[in-house]
Amino acid sequence: MFSEKRNKIIDCPFDEGNESMTPEEAYAIREHGKKNGAGWKIRVVPNLYAPVSKTVPESCDSEYFKIRDGCGYAEIIIETPIHNQTMDSYSINQFELYFQAIINRIVEISKDKRIKLIQIFKNNGPDSGASQTHQHSQIIAIPFIPKEIVNRFKRLKRYYEKNGSSYFYDLVEHEVASDKRVVLKNADFVAICPYDSKTPFEIMIVPTGNMTSMIFMNNQEIVSLAEIFKKLMAALRKKLRDFSFNIIFNEPPLRYRAIEKFFRFYINIIPKLTVQGGFEQATGIFINPQPPEKAAKELRTALNYGAEGRT
Ligand SMILES: [Zn+2]
Fold first, then answer.
1. CA 120 to centroid of ligand 1, rounded, Å
2. Domains of the chain, first to last
Protein backbone atom coordinates (compact mmCIF):
# COMPACT_ATOMS: atom_id res chain seq x y z
CA MET A 1 0.00 0.00 0.00
CA PHE A 2 1.44 3.34 -1.03
CA SER A 3 0.46 6.64 0.48
CA GLU A 4 0.72 9.60 -1.88
CA LYS A 5 3.69 10.93 0.08
CA ARG A 6 5.54 7.61 0.03
CA ASN A 7 4.82 7.12 -3.64
CA LYS A 8 6.16 10.59 -4.40
CA ILE A 9 9.39 10.06 -2.44
CA ILE A 10 10.04 6.67 -4.02
CA ASP A 11 9.21 7.63 -7.57
CA CYS A 12 10.40 11.15 -8.33
CA PRO A 13 14.16 11.61 -8.79
CA PHE A 14 13.73 15.39 -8.94
CA ASP A 15 12.31 15.77 -5.40
CA GLU A 16 14.32 17.23 -2.55
CA GLY A 17 15.73 14.30 -0.58
CA ASN A 18 16.10 12.12 -3.69
CA GLU A 19 19.37 13.69 -4.90
CA SER A 20 21.09 10.27 -4.90
CA MET A 21 18.74 9.20 -7.71
CA THR A 22 20.33 11.68 -10.14
CA PRO A 23 23.95 11.95 -11.37
CA GLU A 24 26.23 14.50 -9.63
CA GLU A 25 24.92 18.03 -10.03
CA ALA A 26 26.57 20.42 -12.48
CA TYR A 27 25.10 23.52 -10.84
CA ALA A 28 22.86 24.41 -7.91
CA ILE A 29 21.69 27.30 -5.77
CA ARG A 30 21.05 26.18 -2.22
CA GLU A 31 20.03 27.87 1.00
CA HIS A 32 21.77 25.31 3.18
CA GLY A 33 23.18 21.80 3.00
CA LYS A 34 25.96 20.29 0.92
CA LYS A 35 26.50 19.65 -2.78
CA ASN A 36 24.30 16.77 -4.03
CA GLY A 37 22.22 16.98 -0.84
CA ALA A 38 18.98 18.68 0.21
CA GLY A 39 18.51 22.42 0.78
CA TRP A 40 18.57 23.56 -2.87
CA LYS A 41 16.29 25.94 -4.73
CA ILE A 42 17.31 24.94 -8.25
CA ARG A 43 19.64 22.19 -9.57
CA VAL A 44 21.15 21.16 -12.88
CA VAL A 45 22.12 17.51 -13.39
CA PRO A 46 23.24 15.42 -16.37
CA ASN A 47 20.32 13.69 -18.09
CA LEU A 48 20.33 9.96 -17.30
CA TYR A 49 18.53 9.29 -20.58
CA ALA A 50 20.81 11.45 -22.70
CA PRO A 51 20.66 11.41 -26.51
CA VAL A 52 24.27 12.69 -26.55
CA SER A 53 27.36 12.16 -24.38
CA LYS A 54 30.61 14.01 -23.70
CA THR A 55 32.70 11.32 -25.35
CA VAL A 56 32.93 11.02 -29.11
CA PRO A 57 31.86 7.64 -30.53
CA GLU A 58 33.32 6.29 -33.78
CA SER A 59 31.91 7.85 -36.87
CA CYS A 60 29.77 5.55 -38.98
CA ASP A 61 28.90 7.39 -42.18
CA SER A 62 27.68 5.24 -45.02
CA GLU A 63 27.34 5.92 -48.73
CA TYR A 64 23.70 6.93 -48.36
CA PHE A 65 23.24 8.19 -44.83
CA LYS A 66 25.35 10.61 -42.90
CA ILE A 67 25.22 9.76 -39.22
CA ARG A 68 26.19 12.53 -36.86
CA ASP A 69 28.07 11.39 -33.79
CA GLY A 70 26.30 12.00 -30.51
CA CYS A 71 29.05 14.03 -28.86
CA GLY A 72 27.57 16.74 -26.66
CA TYR A 73 25.93 17.58 -23.36
CA ALA A 74 22.47 16.71 -22.11
CA GLU A 75 21.42 18.25 -18.82
CA ILE A 76 18.22 18.75 -16.84
CA ILE A 77 17.38 21.95 -15.00
CA ILE A 78 15.25 20.92 -12.01
CA GLU A 79 13.45 24.20 -11.52
CA THR A 80 11.90 23.65 -8.11
CA PRO A 81 12.29 21.18 -5.21
CA ILE A 82 8.49 21.06 -4.86
CA HIS A 83 7.01 18.12 -6.79
CA ASN A 84 3.65 19.52 -7.81
CA GLN A 85 4.47 23.21 -8.22
CA THR A 86 3.37 24.66 -11.57
CA MET A 87 5.32 27.32 -13.45
CA ASP A 88 2.59 29.96 -13.10
CA SER A 89 3.03 29.80 -9.31
CA TYR A 90 6.79 30.57 -9.40
CA SER A 91 7.86 33.72 -7.56
CA ILE A 92 9.83 36.42 -9.39
CA ASN A 93 12.90 35.12 -7.53
CA GLN A 94 12.33 31.56 -8.82
CA PHE A 95 12.26 32.84 -12.39
CA GLU A 96 15.47 34.82 -11.71
CA LEU A 97 17.20 31.66 -10.44
CA TYR A 98 15.94 29.78 -13.51
CA PHE A 99 17.52 32.32 -15.88
CA GLN A 100 20.74 32.43 -13.83
CA ALA A 101 20.99 28.64 -14.09
CA ILE A 102 20.55 28.86 -17.88
CA ILE A 103 23.23 31.58 -18.10
CA ASN A 104 25.66 29.52 -16.00
CA ARG A 105 25.23 26.45 -18.21
CA ILE A 106 25.64 28.41 -21.46
CA VAL A 107 28.87 29.97 -20.13
CA GLU A 108 30.26 26.66 -18.81
CA ILE A 109 29.29 24.41 -21.74
CA SER A 110 30.53 26.92 -24.32
CA LYS A 111 34.05 26.48 -22.91
CA ASP A 112 34.08 23.11 -24.72
CA LYS A 113 35.38 24.11 -28.15
CA ARG A 114 33.69 21.13 -29.85
CA ILE A 115 30.23 22.48 -29.08
CA LYS A 116 28.53 24.56 -31.76
CA LEU A 117 24.98 24.95 -30.45
CA ILE A 118 23.35 24.95 -27.02
CA GLN A 119 19.61 24.34 -27.24
CA ILE A 120 17.58 24.98 -24.11
CA PHE A 121 13.91 24.05 -24.01
CA LYS A 122 11.07 23.02 -21.75
CA ASN A 123 8.40 20.41 -22.42
CA ASN A 124 5.51 20.77 -20.00
CA GLY A 125 2.41 18.61 -19.90
CA PRO A 126 1.29 15.41 -21.65
CA ASP A 127 0.92 17.00 -25.12
CA SER A 128 4.39 18.61 -25.10
CA GLY A 129 6.62 15.54 -25.12
CA ALA A 130 7.31 15.74 -21.36
CA SER A 131 8.05 12.41 -19.68
CA GLN A 132 8.34 13.79 -16.13
CA THR A 133 5.69 15.90 -14.40
CA HIS A 134 8.12 17.60 -11.97
CA GLN A 135 8.96 21.05 -13.42
CA HIS A 136 12.17 20.87 -15.44
CA SER A 137 13.86 22.14 -18.59
CA GLN A 138 16.44 20.48 -20.80
CA ILE A 139 19.77 21.51 -22.26
CA ILE A 140 21.14 19.70 -25.29
CA ALA A 141 24.48 20.93 -26.62
CA ILE A 142 25.69 19.55 -29.95
CA PRO A 143 28.87 19.73 -32.10
CA PHE A 144 27.16 20.96 -35.27
CA ILE A 145 24.62 23.57 -36.34
CA PRO A 146 21.40 22.06 -37.72
CA LYS A 147 20.50 23.14 -41.25
CA GLU A 148 17.30 24.89 -40.16
CA ILE A 149 19.27 27.16 -37.84
CA VAL A 150 21.95 27.85 -40.48
CA ASN A 151 19.17 28.86 -42.89
CA ARG A 152 17.51 31.06 -40.26
CA PHE A 153 20.78 32.95 -39.78
CA LYS A 154 21.28 33.30 -43.52
CA ARG A 155 17.80 34.84 -43.81
CA LEU A 156 18.47 37.24 -40.92
CA LYS A 157 21.80 38.29 -42.44
CA ARG A 158 20.21 38.84 -45.85
CA TYR A 159 17.49 40.96 -44.22
CA TYR A 160 20.16 43.13 -42.61
CA GLU A 161 22.13 43.48 -45.84
CA LYS A 162 19.00 44.45 -47.77
CA ASN A 163 17.42 46.80 -45.23
CA GLY A 164 20.38 48.16 -43.28
CA SER A 165 18.68 47.32 -39.99
CA SER A 166 18.13 44.14 -38.02
CA TYR A 167 14.94 42.13 -38.37
CA PHE A 168 14.52 42.23 -34.59
CA TYR A 169 14.95 46.02 -34.42
CA ASP A 170 12.29 46.46 -37.12
CA LEU A 171 10.02 43.84 -35.54
CA VAL A 172 10.03 45.53 -32.12
CA GLU A 173 9.57 49.02 -33.66
CA HIS A 174 6.69 47.87 -35.86
CA GLU A 175 4.90 45.75 -33.25
CA VAL A 176 5.13 48.38 -30.50
CA ALA A 177 3.95 51.11 -32.90
CA SER A 178 0.97 49.09 -34.20
CA ASP A 179 0.19 47.61 -30.75
CA LYS A 180 -2.03 44.93 -32.33
CA ARG A 181 -0.05 41.89 -31.26
CA VAL A 182 1.74 43.17 -28.13
CA VAL A 183 0.72 41.25 -25.01
CA LEU A 184 3.03 42.94 -22.54
CA LYS A 185 6.17 45.08 -22.44
CA ASN A 186 8.56 46.70 -20.00
CA ALA A 187 11.79 48.68 -20.39
CA ASP A 188 13.85 45.66 -21.43
CA PHE A 189 11.51 43.16 -23.16
CA VAL A 190 8.42 42.98 -25.29
CA ALA A 191 6.13 39.95 -25.55
CA ILE A 192 4.07 39.59 -28.73
CA CYS A 193 1.85 37.02 -30.41
CA PRO A 194 3.92 36.71 -33.61
CA TYR A 195 2.37 37.59 -36.97
CA ASP A 196 3.27 34.08 -38.18
CA SER A 197 2.04 32.24 -35.05
CA LYS A 198 1.90 28.52 -35.75
CA THR A 199 -0.47 27.77 -32.86
CA PRO A 200 -3.08 29.71 -30.84
CA PHE A 201 -1.58 31.85 -28.06
CA GLU A 202 2.01 31.42 -29.29
CA ILE A 203 4.19 34.08 -27.64
CA MET A 204 7.59 35.50 -28.60
CA ILE A 205 9.66 37.47 -26.08
CA VAL A 206 12.32 39.77 -27.56
CA PRO A 207 14.74 42.17 -25.85
CA THR A 208 14.13 45.84 -26.69
CA GLY A 209 17.90 46.39 -26.98
CA ASN A 210 20.58 44.63 -29.01
CA MET A 211 21.37 41.55 -26.94
CA THR A 212 22.55 38.46 -28.78
CA SER A 213 22.51 36.03 -25.84
CA MET A 214 20.96 35.65 -22.40
CA ILE A 215 24.49 35.67 -20.98
CA PHE A 216 24.69 39.44 -21.58
CA MET A 217 21.69 40.22 -19.35
CA ASN A 218 22.52 42.34 -16.29
CA ASN A 219 20.69 41.87 -12.98
CA GLN A 220 18.02 44.43 -13.85
CA GLU A 221 17.33 42.73 -17.18
CA ILE A 222 17.07 39.34 -15.47
CA VAL A 223 14.44 40.81 -13.10
CA SER A 224 12.63 42.37 -16.08
CA LEU A 225 12.50 39.04 -17.89
CA ALA A 226 11.32 37.31 -14.68
CA GLU A 227 8.49 39.85 -14.36
CA ILE A 228 7.42 39.33 -17.97
CA PHE A 229 7.44 35.53 -17.57
CA LYS A 230 5.53 35.65 -14.30
CA LYS A 231 2.76 37.75 -15.81
CA LEU A 232 2.59 35.76 -19.06
CA MET A 233 2.37 32.41 -17.30
CA ALA A 234 -0.39 33.76 -15.03
CA ALA A 235 -2.31 35.09 -18.06
CA LEU A 236 -1.93 31.81 -19.97
CA ARG A 237 -3.04 29.83 -16.95
CA LYS A 238 -6.06 32.07 -16.50
CA LYS A 239 -6.98 31.70 -20.16
CA LEU A 240 -6.08 28.04 -20.77
CA ARG A 241 -6.15 26.42 -17.28
CA ASP A 242 -4.10 23.20 -17.36
CA PHE A 243 -2.37 23.26 -20.70
CA SER A 244 0.67 21.63 -22.26
CA PHE A 245 3.35 23.92 -23.65
CA ASN A 246 6.90 24.16 -24.91
CA ILE A 247 9.35 26.98 -24.18
CA ILE A 248 12.23 27.43 -26.62
CA PHE A 249 15.24 29.60 -25.81
CA ASN A 250 16.72 30.71 -29.13
CA GLU A 251 20.42 31.31 -28.53
CA PRO A 252 22.88 31.92 -31.37
CA PRO A 253 25.31 29.19 -32.43
CA LEU A 254 28.55 29.52 -30.49
CA ARG A 255 31.43 31.48 -31.97
CA TYR A 256 29.31 33.08 -34.70
CA ARG A 257 30.98 36.43 -35.36
CA ALA A 258 29.49 39.89 -35.74
CA ILE A 259 25.92 38.75 -35.22
CA GLU A 260 24.97 41.75 -33.06
CA LYS A 261 24.07 43.60 -36.25
CA PHE A 262 21.32 41.16 -37.16
CA PHE A 263 20.48 38.86 -34.24
CA ARG A 264 18.87 39.12 -30.81
CA PHE A 265 18.13 36.14 -28.59
CA TYR A 266 14.42 35.43 -28.29
CA ILE A 267 12.15 33.06 -26.43
CA ASN A 268 9.04 31.27 -27.67
CA ILE A 269 6.26 30.03 -25.42
CA ILE A 270 4.15 27.62 -27.48
CA PRO A 271 0.92 26.23 -25.97
CA LYS A 272 0.12 22.79 -27.44
CA LEU A 273 -3.53 23.28 -28.29
CA THR A 274 -3.53 21.93 -31.85
CA VAL A 275 -2.28 18.66 -33.30
CA GLN A 276 0.15 18.58 -36.22
CA GLY A 277 -1.71 16.71 -38.94
CA GLY A 278 -0.58 15.25 -42.24
CA PHE A 279 -0.83 18.55 -44.11
CA GLU A 280 1.43 20.36 -41.62
CA GLN A 281 3.99 17.55 -41.65
CA ALA A 282 3.94 17.29 -45.44
CA THR A 283 4.20 20.99 -46.24
CA GLY A 284 5.60 22.78 -43.19
CA ILE A 285 2.55 25.07 -43.43
CA PHE A 286 0.68 25.44 -40.16
CA ILE A 287 -3.05 25.99 -39.94
CA ASN A 288 -3.64 28.24 -36.96
CA PRO A 289 -7.37 28.69 -36.24
CA GLN A 290 -6.79 31.80 -34.14
CA PRO A 291 -5.44 35.14 -35.45
CA PRO A 292 -2.52 36.40 -33.31
CA GLU A 293 -4.26 39.78 -32.86
CA LYS A 294 -7.16 38.01 -31.13
CA ALA A 295 -4.78 35.95 -28.97
CA ALA A 296 -2.90 39.09 -27.89
CA LYS A 297 -6.16 40.85 -27.03
CA GLU A 298 -7.43 37.92 -24.97
CA LEU A 299 -4.12 37.62 -23.10
CA ARG A 300 -4.09 41.37 -22.38
CA THR A 301 -7.60 41.02 -20.92
CA ALA A 302 -6.48 38.05 -18.80
CA LEU A 303 -3.48 40.11 -17.60
CA ASN A 304 -5.67 42.97 -16.46
CA TYR A 305 -7.99 40.65 -14.56
CA GLY A 306 -5.12 38.81 -12.96
CA ALA A 307 -2.77 41.72 -12.28
CA GLU A 308 -3.43 42.33 -8.61
CA GLY A 309 -1.56 40.26 -6.04
CA ARG A 310 0.44 38.34 -8.66
CA THR A 311 4.02 39.24 -7.78
ZN1 LIG B 1 9.06 15.43 -8.06
1. 21
2. 11-55+65-142 (3.30.428.10), 147-306 (3.30.428.10)
